[in-house]
Design goal:
Helix 6 links the parallel strand 5 and strand 6. Helix 3 packs parallel to helix 4. Strands 1, 2, 3, 4, 5, 6, 12 and 13 form an eight-stranded mixed beta sheet that branches. The protein has a three-stranded antiparallel beta sheet with strand order 8-7-9. It is built from ten helices and 13 strands. The protein is of the alpha/beta class. It starts with a helix and ends in a 46-residue tail after the last helix. It has one domain: Alpha-Beta Barrel (TIM Barrel), CATH 3.20.20.
């Protein structure tokens, strides 16, 4: 009898060991060892009602993806400009504004006709244009020249990018191609600059919006945060950790990092057992279901000390044909409907559709100690780019900026 029990014990130990090995391999295959510890150590913060939900949709907008010909690129851009107007016009947030789409357009794919169409769409009040860049084995001189040239081109020819009212220089949001911000790929590809955070800061970048990048190995240990990263110019991936932005705090480091939700989706499991990674990516293979929207809200990314202002940044690659029916059709329509129905009742939640620039402005207002209605701070530090000057929802009353001496005092009713 004892021999039989020993055999069973050995079998169970063997199975447990195999299961442990399988779990470890599954974790490493998806690079989850980088961030899983941070996810498991997360803590919930109780927020007073109402909770203001800032929803920001950023797009790695690449018309030439797949090295397609010009007619195909043109068809992609034309469909976005046609169908997004229809989609967004059917929805409104608490401030009466439609969903805002931030087009991070790649410098290396620039074509004037594409940007002109997107700029016209944004000028009607449907979004803004920011900078996306794919590069490899780059040099400081080339990077500086590339970003500076593209900044000036977008601003002068397409009315994009905000000009800082204090310094007069152009400011921009940034998404790194192939997720490789600050040379963060383990194999060193698709960047080449260990001091990229410093370079971006000096060029006028107000924040990076690349993350989350899981399951890529470029994903950082720090997750579900808005934080300042300090560059170590001798090492890659300096934004792996940083200092969270705090209400009543002060800026630090070299560059603000704005992350989207990252976690585990237990409602969607491989083989019924292994939870999928929730990385805030929206496309046909991972549509924005109500369950996912609820998970993004529960993640509650916020400025420390201001838990009643939460920021949801989701991302996509918008010009891939296989995903356009999702992004411009019923799945995203249903996502906005769910946001407006469940998170805009005025008592428990208030919904605000924001661009990347507006998200940054509201974060800076929270850092300065402001509270109350965050929609007043959409233009708090950086004004709208010139192409948006006449959009119908840009000129309403109650807009606060940091140049306003009363509102900048940090006390709100």
């Amino acid at each position: 009898m004892s021999s039989h029990m020993e055999s069973w014990s050995l079998l169970l130990l063997g199975l447990a060991a195999l299961a442990g090995v399988a779990v470890t391999l599954a974790i490493r295959a998806r690079n989850m060892q980088i961030w899983l510890g941070s996810y498991l150590r997360r803590r919930r913060v109780q927020a007073p009602h109402p909770v203001h939900v800032m929803f920001c949709f950023v797009d790695h907008f690449e018309p030439a993806w797949g090295r397609v010909d010009l007619p195909t690129q043109r068809a992609r851009v034309d469909r976005w400009c046609r169908d997004y107007r229809v989609l967004a016009s059917a929805h409104r947030d608490a401030d009466g504004r439609p969903p805002q789409h931030t087009f991070f357009y790649p410098e290396e794919e620039y074509l004037e006709e594409h940007l002109e169409k997107i700029a016209n769409l944004c000028g009607e009040g449907f979004g803004e244009i920011e900078i996306h860049l794919h590069h490899d084995d780059d040099t400081e001189a080339n990077f500086n020249a590339t970003i500076t040239r593209f900044n000036e081109l977008l601003h002068a020819r397409h009315g994009a990018l905000a000009r800082d009212p204090r310094s007069g220089r152009l400011r921009f949001g940034f998404i790194h191609g192939n997720w490789s911000l600050d040379n963060s790929r383990a194999d060193g590809r698709w960047c080449g600059l260990n001091n990229e955070l410093i370079l971006l800061r000096d060029l006028g970048c107000y924040a990076d919006f690349t993350l989350p990048s899981a399951p890529s190995d470029t994903q950082t240990r720090m997750i579900n945060s808005i934080y300042y990263a300090t560059d170590d110019p001798l090492r890659p991936k300096s934004h792996d950790t940083g200092t969270p932005v705090q209400a009543g705090g002060r800026p630090s480091g070299d560059l603000m990092i704005v992350q989207g939700p990252l976690g585990l989706n237990w409602r969607s499991r491989r083989y019924g057992l292994v939870p999928r990674i929730e990385n805030a990516d929206v496309r046909r293979s991972c549509p924005p279901t109500a369950d996912r929207v609820d998970a993004w809200v529960r993640t509650a990314i916020h400025v420390e000390g201001r838990p009643d202002w939460i920021f949801i940044k989701v991302h996509t690659h918008g010009t891939q044909e296989r995903d356009m029916d999702t992004l411009l059709g019923e799945p995203v329509h249903a996502m906005f409907e769910h946001l407006e129905r469940r998170y805009n009742n005025g008592t428990h939640h208030v919904l605000h559709y924001v661009t990347a620039r507006e998200l940054y402005n509201i974060v800076k207002a929270a850092e300065a100690g402001h509270r109350g209605d965050p929609s007043r701070f959409r233009d708090y530090e950086l004004p709208p780019p010139p192409g948006l000057a006449h959009a119908p929802w840009r000129t309403g009353p109650g807009r606060a900026t940091r140049r306003d001496p009363v509102r900048h005092a940090g006390v709100e009713d």
